[in-house]
Structure formats: structure tokens, C-alpha cells
Design a protein that fits this description.
three-stranded mixed beta sheet; 13 helices; two-stranded antiparallel ribbon; mainly alpha; 264 residues
């Protein structure tokens, strides 16, 4: 039983607090010490964010901020206190994965997941000279990125990976409400940004780049996908094209959830 899981069990039916996140932060960094160069501070605050932000990672000062009240407000039902704690852990893991993405980009990783995540960080990459100069004004690009948050491949993929971590953490708690909750959240993170337009399923990563007017990057990603035979898991995680059968059936099977039966 790892330290993260033991900490979660210690908070069974107990309210989240600052100590929970500080301990979890320490344990997560023990799991991956390579992150120390990219994140080394955590701030847990009771202050409310107007946009209901649960957490954020500031690249500039290498700090993660957790908005405790906003996390608690996500689950007002006292019966779901353990779900709230699971969400809190997922939020912290999500922000740490953002730091891990910066690490991979700075190290020059070329895998498809890092590549599509970089599409959501084009302004950062341009400022750091990691990516060639873009035609779009960086301030406007940052605005468009925020406007298309749902399909942003950096946010979307990070959300998926953080919920995968939580599901794996709880996998031995078979038939529990907590595991069902985590699987449901994973399912919604996987379908995030995908839409059935009546003919085919829109790719959120393609749509994101088109909305940002990054036609060159859209063509580069599309060309890479067409040249590679990426499996279903990779395409789904990275927000790349999937079939209707994969969308309507395989995602449910992947998350071990069932379709709701229609009632008369």
C-alpha cells in the first residue's frame, strides 16, 4: 500500500485540509524526483477564485496553488465527502502533471502525447524559443487558448492521466462508490471535446488548432496521425480522430462502465 493511498484512507469521511495536500505533495514528489526542478512549492488557500478554479500551476515561480473552498464546493452533499477527497487528490495530481509536461517539453521529448500537449502551450514555447515563431500575436493566442479550454489538448490529456492515476489507485476497492465515481470522472474526461456532427466524430485536438487559427500546426499534427498507426488508447487520450463505434462503445468498456437502460 503506497503512501498516497494510505493518506487517502486516513482521510476517510474526514474533511480535506491544508495538511492533506502538503503531505500528498511530498509523497508525489517522492514518486518522481525529476519534478523537483519544475515545481517545489505548494500553497493551499481558502480564498475563492471567481472562475471556480480548483488548482493551478504557475510555471514562472514553479508553484502549485490549491483552492480548498472551490474543491469543497464541487461536492456540497455531505454524503460524498470521500468523493470530494478523491477530487482533491486528482486536482493536485493534475497540476503536478502540468509540471511534468513542462519537463518533457524542455527535455525535447517527441512522443505524440507531449507533442499535442505542446499545442496547448504554444505561447509558452514561443517565449522560451522552444517552438518556431508563430504568426498569431501571443496575447491573442493566449486568449483563444483560454476560450477553447474544453478542447485544449494540454488540459484534456492531463485531466485524463490524472483520473487514470486515481482509478488505478482505487482499483482494488471493487464495487465501491468511490471507484465508481473515479471511473465516471475518467469517462467524462475521455469524451471531453469529442462531438458527433452526424457524419463523423469531431477530433477535439483538430478543432482546438482550427479555433486557434493555427493551420500550419493543424496540418502537421494531421499528417503525423495519417502516417502513424496510433492505437485507440493513444488517439483517445490525445484527442485525435476516433470512430463512432469507438466513441459510443469502446470508451464505456475501457472505463468499465455500462450504458444506462432506457426507461419507459
Amino acid at each position: 500500500m503506497n503512501e498516497i493511498y494510505k493518506l487517502l484512507k486516513q482521510y476517510n469521511n474526514k474533511e480535506l485540509d491544508k495538511e492533506f495536500f502538503e503531505k500528498a505533495f511530498t509523497y508525489f514528489l517522492k514518486e518522481d524526483e525529476s519534478l523537483f526542478r519544475f515545481v517545489n512549492k505548494i500553497k493551499v488557500t481558502d480564498a475563492d477564485e471567481e472562475d471556480e478554479t480548483l488548482g493551478n500551476y504557475r510555471i514562472e515561480d514553479e508553484m502549485i496553488t490549491i483552492y480548498l473552498n472551490n474543491i469543497k464546493d464541487e461536492h456540497l452533499d455531505k454524503k460524498n465527502i470521500n468523493n470530494r477527497n478523491i477530487l482533491g487528490l486528482q486536482v493536485l495530481k493534475h497540476e503536478l502533471l502540468h509540471a511534468d509536461t513542462i519537463r518533457k517539453i524542455r527535455e525535447g521529448k517527441k512522443d505524440i502525447k507531449t507533442y499535442v500537449k505542446m499545442m496547448g502551450l504554444l505561447d509558452y514555447c514561443a517565449k522560451k524559443g522552444i517552438y518556431y515563431p508563430l504568426e498569431t500575436d501571443l496575447q491573442y493566442l493566449n486568449f483563444l487558448t483560454k476560450e477553447n479550454y474544453i478542447s485544449d489538448p494540454n488540459e484534456r490529456t492531463t485531466d485524463i492521466d490524472s483520473w487514470k492515476y486515481i482509478v488505478n489507485l482505487l482499483k482494488n476497492q471493487k464495487n465501491t462508490q468511490e471507484l465508481l465515481y473515479a471511473r465516471s470522472r475518467l469517462y467524462y474526461s475521455l469524451i471531453r471535446g469529442y462531438k458527433d456532427n452526424g457524419i463523423y466524430i469531431n477530433s477535439p485536438t483538430y478543432e482546438f488548432l482550427l479555433e486557434l487559427r493555427q493551420i500550419r500546426e493543424f496540418k502537421l499534427v494531421k499528417k503525423r496521425v495519417e502516417e502513424k498507426d496510433y492505437n485507440f488508447d493513444t488517439r483517445l487520450t490525445c484527442g485525435l480522430p476516433i470512430s463512432k463505434d469507438e466513441y459510443y462503445n469502446k470508451i464505456l468498456k475501457k472505463t468499465k462502465l455500462q450504458k444506462k437502460r432506457k426507461t419507459e
